[in-house]
Write a structure and sequence with these properties.
The complex is a heterodimer of chains A (268) and B (621). With 268 residues, chain A is mainly beta. Chain B is built from 1 helix and 43 strands. Classes of the chains: A mainly beta (268), B mainly beta (621).
Chain lengths: 268, 621
């Protein structure tokens, strides 16, 4: 019953969203979307949906990996160590080396680790985890599957259930009428084409509590293939439910098998 | 083998003591051939990141502060009353956009971590789509990993990327995996990205001149000079990092174990395992603490180079000064194309940085300079200071316009052969000077040693810190009296910087003293050279190239042309040092095989002309 209520609310929200195309959605911060560098990585982007819901995307992995209630602690060009991280390499002998980091403020709903991005022409030997990620050098981060590591935010499986190792390619984001949409592709190997995905996050407090309503749109999924969001966000898959569309939640992943729209609701 | 014939122990022995602006001092103001007016709208309260013009004269300008944004100034900014220009925010939430390029009225910005196309789909004057053209480069959280641009050659965008330094100037070790300190280029059609050059340090600016890309680095390789060069595919410009970046010779250049890795200039540019590409023009850094002394430098932080198309200096480059510190100067550069196809030339005094910006304290900078639709130059300042590019400054937007005034100045310095330079002045020398003006010329020479950290040094003929004073030359006025031939008794040294200064005894036929008495010439090859040649930019080898390259057993390379019948083609394989290993030509469709002996190990440049189109591709074996 609760799931049904949430689904109805999400549908109502979407209807309102489409109806509000001509009016700008109000956001809690003038700078409501911003490409920032965190302590861990560059190429991140926060979107301030509501004072109760700020989210952060990692753009190269095309994944929402952080959500919190609150706001921004600023950052930009700080001259003091933003956290106790003197062992990290950009703190040369304990002194911050031109850190240019951004920090959230408030109460975290979740924050995941995300693989960092390396240029495609990187010499794989230079990401030798026994020398690159040692204490006092670069901080340990999960290694993406593109470089032989275990991390995949999105995967694509063929009709045999095999991971085809699709490459993630962030394409764009759009902000008409203060509505944020992330657009990216999952590029299939062997000139197999590209699955286009978009995600538009919104905040909802209906029927109660704080909800992150994520509307996905898929196109180009080959027959019998499935697209999997392996990192829905946080360690508790139970907070996530599909309220609209054909996707299902399986083993901690959102699984989409057909083109079209799916709404994933997170309750916090 | 060193060919400097005469060495005096003290570098400045022959210099006279009296100084004046333009003579062993920065010039005092704007060059008389130009005027500078501050046109900064009151709404601009931030440092400028990049600028370019729309086809209708509107000026696109990016802010270098948080938040990083893009604004568009109305085209009144290029009119007689720029104060009436209005400004509208076009985009926000960027990541340090230090470069912008307008192509067919579409706005591309180079952010620190992404090349982005900004689109206004609903035509309301504000970007509503931020499209990632490319982000295919490694970017850590180190804020010194600057990305500066943009230049566009019709096919590719070019940006210059800095190495990740810490406060003592050392590169982070290990550098972030895949971080390329050098030029990257991005194909406009599909965003395909490739490392174009390596060995860069802190990027200064990127511009187009003569149809080619030109870049500046702030003390590239920690030389005692700033660097100006036209990057070419696969080349490496001398700043080692660990592990080696792409194109960096492996093995000899670990900056941690070999902090000053080159014992001689010949080793730097010629020895196996080093093989750096010579810098086209070294612009000596203005500092009071050059190890070994010698003449003061010219500029501190070079910025976006711009080709001069009008006036007495047409065909030359201007290199703005982005540093607001005392001692900064916009520099004029004369370039000549040498018989080996490479550029070199001389730097001269031009305009003091203090003329830019309305605020004498926070002005003094020109970081990005573009030519407007009216032919004037437009300067945006970022107010950098010497330490870490601090940017808590409010700096200017200035317009630099040509006047009709031509002062008595050094117009050009040309190398005419192993032991000869030719000076050309803007006006004839006074007849009273006679034909022999040798007594009024001072020449110093040195090479700049590369080091891992700040502080090293000019090296003289004894390979010690210092400069070498050259004597014994003759300076003879030519018949038109606007040129002087300087002949040395022995061959000049390649890869060395020649500093040449005329005393104030040299006057024009109207009894004017020189605006700037000094020239700094970088001699990499012997002339005579020619004026810069506009080139047709290379087109990419893929995906629209009419040929494929494949590798076969036994190290054989196959090039297959799929072209119309009887289409002529030419193919050459060239090393990064310019040496040609193989040339073939014929009529397509055809198939060529290169045997291992024709295709050496390492990186080579494959150049193909099919029909009337040029292509190039880097090969690695």
């Amino acid at each position: 019953m609760k799931k049904l209520a949430i689904r109805l609310c999400a549908v109502a929200f979407l209807a309102l969203g489409f109806a509000a195309v001509s009016a700008q959605v109000t956001r809690p911060n003038a700078l409501w979307f911003n490409r920032v560098i965190s302590l861990e990585r560059s190429r991140e982007m926060y979107v301030a949906l509501n004072s109760n819901m700020w989210v952060m995307y990692d753009l190269p992995q095309a994944v929402l990996f952080q959500a919190w209630q609150g706001g921004t602690g600023g950052g930009a060009f700080v001259t003091g160590a933003p956290v106790n991280a003197t062992n990290q390499y950009w703190f040369y002998t304990g002194t911050p080396q031109f850190p240019h980091v951004w920090r959230p403020s408030g109460t975290s709903y979740f924050k995941d680790s995300v693989a960092e991005y390396f240029a495609t022409y990187t010499n794989p030997a230079h990401i030798n985890t026994t020398s690159y990620y040692v204490a006092g050098k670069w901080p340990k981060q999960p290694l993406s599957s593109a470089w032989g590591g275990p991390y995949s935010a999105w995967t694509v499986r063929n009709g045999s259930g095999q991971n085809v190792n699709a490459a993630i390619r962030f394409r764009a984001f759009t902000v008409p009428n203060n509505v944020f949409t992330l657009k990216f592709g999952l590029i299939l190997p062997d000139n197999g084409g590209e699955i286009s995905v978009s995600e538009s996050p919104e905040y909802s407090n209906l029927p109660s509590g704080n909800h992150l309503v994520r509307t996905f749109t898929f196109s180009g999924i080959p027959a019998n293939y499935q697209v999997r969001l392996e990192k829905m966000g946080g360690n508790n898959p139970a907070v996530w439910s599909v309220t609209s569309g054909s996707a299902t939640v399986q083993g901690g992943a959102m699984v989409q098998t057909a083109n079209g729209q799916t709404v994933l609701n997170g309750s916090f | 083998m060193k060919l400097i014939p005469y060495i005096l122990p003290l570098a400045l022995a022959s210099l006279s003591l009296a100084q004046r602006p333009g003579d062993r001092q920065n010039v005092a103001g704007v060059h008389p051939s130009y005027t500078v007016e501050n046109i900064k709208p009151a709404d601009i309260t931030w440092a400028v990141g990049g600028m370019d013009f729309m086809s209708d004269g509107r000026l696109v300008i990016t802010s270098w502060r948080d938040p990083y944004e893009v604004y568009i100034l109305s085209n009144a900014i290029v009119g007689p009353n720029p104060a009436t220009a209005t400004m509208k925010k076009f985009a926000t939430g960027l990541s340090e956009a230090l470069g912008v390029k307008v192509v067919n009225d579409s706005i591309y910005v180079l952010e620190k971590d992404q090349l982005t196309l900004l689109l206004d789909n609903d035509n309301d004057g504000t970007a509503d789509e931020y499209r990632a053209v490319s982000y295919d480069w490694t970017k850590s959280v180190n804020s010194k990993e600057y990305a500066i641009g943009l230049a566009f050659d019709g096919t590719w965008f070019y940006g210059l990327f800095g190495d990740p330094t810490v406060s003592n100037g050392t590169s982070v070790d290990p550098t972030p995996a895949g971080r390329q300190n050098g030029v990257l280029r991005f194909r406009k059609s599909d965003g395909f990205t490739e490392a174009f050059t390596g060995g860069g340090r802190v990027p200064g600016g990127v511009g187009m001149a003569y149809g080619q890309v030109w870049v500046t680095e702030i003390q590239g390789g920690y030389r005692v000079s700033n660097s100006l060069y036209n990057p070419k595919a696969g080349r490496w410009y001398g700043r080692p990092v660990d592990p080696p970046s792409k194109f960096q010779p492996a093995g000899n250049l670990n900056p941690n174990t070999v902090p000053t890795p080159y014992s001689s200039v010949d080793q730097l540019y010629g020895a196996a395992g080093y093989n750096a590409t010579p810098i086209s023009v070294n612009i000596p850094f203005k500092t009071s603490s050059v190890a070994g002394g010698g003449p003061a430098g010219l500029a501190r932080s070079p910025a976006q180079p711009v080709e001069v198309k009008h006036g007495p200096f047409a065909g030359q480059l201007l290199v703005p000064e982005s540093d607001r510190e005392v001692g900064g100067e916009m520099v004029r550069v004369f370039l000549e194309r040498m018989p080996n196809g490479e550029y070199q030339g001389a730097a001269f005094h031009f305009t003091r940085n203090t003329v830019f910006g309305a605020n004498a304290t926070n002005g003094r900078a020109c970081f990005t300079m573009v030519e407007g639709p009216d032919g004037a130059f437009y300067c945006g300042g970022n107010g950098a200071n010497a330490a870490g590019w601090g940017r808590a400054t409010n700096v200017g937007l200035d317009r630099m316009k040509l006047t009709t005034v031509v002062p008595f100045d050094i117009l050009a310095v040309r190398n005419m052969g192993p032991n000869t330079f030719e000076f050309e002045f803007t006006k004839p020398l006074a007849a009273g000077l006679g034909d022999d003006v040798s007594a009024y010329l001072t020449v110093n020479t040195w090479w700049d040693r590369i080091s891992e950290v700040y502080g090293c040094c000019r090296r003289n003929a004894a390979n010690a810190n210092g400069v070498t004073v050259v004597t014994g030359m003759t300076a003879t006025v030519q018949a038109n009296r606007a040129k002087v031939t300087v002949t040395f008794p022995a061959a000049l040294s390649k890869y060395w910087i020649y500093y040449m200064r005329w005393s104030d005894n040299i006057v024009s036929s109207a009894n004017e003293t020189l605006y700037g008495t000094e020239a700094w010439y970088t001699l990499n090859a012997y002339g005579p050279g020619t004026a810069p040649v506009a080139v047709q930019p290379d087109r990419p080898a893929a995906p629209d190239a009419p040929f494929t390259v494949s590798r076969m057993a036994g190290g054989v390379m196959r090039i297959k042309f799929s072209v119309a019948n009887a289409t002529p083609y030419r193919v050459s394989l060239t090393g990064l040092n310019g040496r040609t290993f193989a040339r073939k030509q014929g009529l397509g469709p055809d198939e060529l095989l290169f045997q291992p002996a024709e295709w050496p190990a390492g990186i080579t440049v494959l150049q193909v002309r099919a029909g009337k189109t040029n292509y190039s591709r880097l090969l690695s074996r």
